[in-house]
Amino acid sequence: MSLYAIGDLHLSLGTDKPMDVFGGGWENYVEKIESGFSRLGPDDICVLCGDISWAMGLEESLEDFRFINTLPGRKIILKGNHDYWWNTAAKMTAFFTQNGIVNIEILHNNCYYYDGAAICGTRGWMSEGEDDTEHNKKIVAREASRLRASLQEAGDAAEKLCFFHYPPRFKNMVCRDFVDVMDEFGVKKCWYGHIHSNGHRFAVTGEVEGIDYRMISADYVDFIPQLIMA
User: Fold this and answer.
1) Secondary structure class of 70 (helix, strand, coil)
2) Is the overall model pTM greater than 0.90, yes or no?
3) Residue 25, Cβ neighbours under 10 Å: how many?
4) What confidence tier does 24 reach under pLDDT thresholds 50, 70, 90?
5) Residue 45 to residue 42: CA distance in whole angstroms
6) Rg (CA), the chain
7) How far is it, in rounded angstroms, from Cα 118 to Cα 121?
8) What are the Cα distances from residue 41, in Å, to 72, 73, 76, 78, 156?
9) Mapping DSSP to helix (H, G, I), strand (E, B) and coil, where does residue 191 land?
10) Phi, psi for 110 (deg, rounded to 5)
11) What is Dmax (Cα atoms) for the chain?
């Protein structure tokens, strides 16, 4: 059993917004996702770091989740900025159950475990130079609170792994609220998505102030889930 992660699948099987139109690496991306997941086994776990489906509601997302359900392994999902279908955990869990989707779980104010390590995280936020606005301050505070709740639930886990949709660091930007919470709980490893295309060159990867950052946007990792722990 191994732990993997990937972000930004941007599925559109029940809607008309396929990413193929952007060309480049996105051409035939659904087939690439299927091929990338083929290296996983039924007992593996994969964290999906947001922007999972372009659907506007749960019903519209059904074909995307049916596709994810066919991929090997158990999936743990967190919210991205384009996941407009996202609802309460209770409603999403009921929706999955009603539609025979059996290998998807929700990371939201909670955590999961893998071999003594805690899988924690939240969507995050990226204000892109507007940190001083009240709107952004409220969102950051809310997301930091959700991150803290996730890490608190991890208790005395030997290691706490953090997953975001938005990058806590990007170019010369840092969301200190998220970094401070990770520092408070002794987090040493962090994965994120959200960044595409030309933005890849500005991604922060490697260790910064004691935390190792890795970007796992699907088009950045060639649609191959990245091994976190084996």
Assistant:
1) helix
2) yes
3) 16
4) confident
5) 8
6) 17
7) 10
8) 6, 6, 15, 21, 29
9) strand
10) -150, -170
11) 46
Residue 132 CB: number of other CB atoms within 10 A? 8
Q: Confirm if 154 and 118 have CB atoms less than 8 A apart.
A: yes
How do residues 109-156 score in pLDDT, each as one tens digit? 999 999 999 999 999 998 765 556 888 899 999 999 999 999 999 999
Q: What is the pLDDT of residue 21?
A: 65
Q: Specify whether the CB–CB gap between 163 and 107 falls below 8 A.
A: yes
Q: At what angle do helices 176-184 and 134-153 cross, to 10 degrees?
A: 20
Q: Within 10 A of 10 (CB to CB), how many other CB atoms are there? A: 24
- How far is the C-alpha of 211 from the C-alpha of 184, rounded, in Å? 12
What CATH number matches the domain at 3-229, 3.40.50.2000, 3.60.21.10, 3.40.50.300, 1.25.40.10? Answer: 3.60.21.10
Q: Which residue's entry shows tokens 């071999």?
A: 115
User: pLDDT class for 213, splitting at 50, 70, 90?
Assistant: very high
Spell out the residues 6+ positions from residue 117 whose beta carbon is closer than 8 angstroms to its own.
3, 157, 158, 159, 160, 161, 229
In this structure, the number of other CB atoms found within 10 A of the CB of residue 129 comes to 10
The domain spans of the chain are 3-229
Q: Where are the alpha helices (DSSP H) in the chain?
A: 29-37, 58-70, 89-98, 134-153, 176-184
Residues above pLDDT 70, as percent of the chain = 97
CB atoms near residue 3 (< 10 Å): 23
- Report the half-sphere exposure of 157 (CA within 13 A, side-chain side): 24
